[in-house]
Write a structure and sequence with these properties.
single chain, mainly alpha, 5 helices, elongated
Amino acid sequence: MNQTHIHLFITHLPLFGSMFGGLVLLHGFLVKSTQTNIAGYYILILSGIGAGIAYLTGEAAEETIENIQGIIKSNIQAHEEFALFALISLISLGILSLMALLLTWNKSPLIRPINIAILLISGISFILVSRTAYLGGQIRHTELNPTTNLTPVQMDVKRDGDID
């Protein structure tokens, strides 16, 4: 497994982790469950770590595909530039979740306002990482790019009863 494989594999962690972690935390917040909040924090911390790994392996992934025919370098550039915003958001989310975890263990009265901040940041992070994923998908998934000029391939399909 090389860095390109790691990049493609790990990119799903920040995407789904920010969404699921935020939903778990929201549930814990609404039902006032400390254990559920802690589970949400762990998911969001892992999402931040995953974002860091995805960003660090992105350059190797770029080098792997940048000379493949049909790859549009501006798509790679747009993905890379937007990924920085998602990275900053998710790293901030992970750090804030780690702080909330420590405050929860110490039974701090600040935990409720921090949970609200984490919920807001997780929503923003999900939006940013979703856009980053969309831009990344356009690099290799030409069906996602409406400006791609794809010509349908004609196939001769034999059906029952067709005569050769």
